[in-house]
Amino acid sequence: MRVDPSYVSNLVGSLDQAQSNEQQLTAELSSGVSITSLSQNPVASGENVLLLNQIQQDDSFTQSSNLVTGQLQVADSTLGSVVSELTSAISLATSANNGTMNSSDVQSVSNQISGILDEVQSLANTSYQGQFLFGGGQTSTTPFTTSTATSPAVTTYNGDDDINYLGTPNGQKIQLNVPGSQIFLGAGSNSVFAALNSLVADYSSGTVNTAQAVSDTEALGTAMNYVSQQRVTIDNSITQVTTASEAVTSDEAQSTTAQSNLMQADVAQVSTQLSLAETQQTALEDVIAQLNSTSNSLFSKLPA
Amino acid sequence: MGTISSAFSLISGALNADQAALSITANNVANANTPGYTQEVPNWQQNDPLTINGVSYGNGVTETGAKSLRDSVLEERLDQQQQLASASSARLTALDGVQALFTPDSGSSSSEAGDIGNDITSFFSSFSQLEAQPTDNALRQGVLSSATTLAGDVSNAADSLNTQRAGLDQEAAGVTSQVNSLTSAISQLNLQIQSTSPNADAGTLEDQRDEDVSQLSQLIGINQITTENNGLSITTTSGQLLVSEGSNFQLTTGAVGGVTDFFLGGSDITSQLAGGGGQLGGYLTARDEDIPNALASLDQLAYNISTNVNTLNNSGTDLDGNSGSVANPLYIFNQPTTVAGSAANMSVIMTDPNQIAAAGAGAGTGDNSNATAIATLASTSSAGLNNQTPTDYYSSFVSKLGATVSGVQAENTAENASVTQLQTQNNALSSVNLNDEASALSTLQTSYQAASQVFSMLNTIMAAALNLGDQTAVS
Question: For the whole model, what pTM was predicted?
Answer without folding.
Answer: 0.86
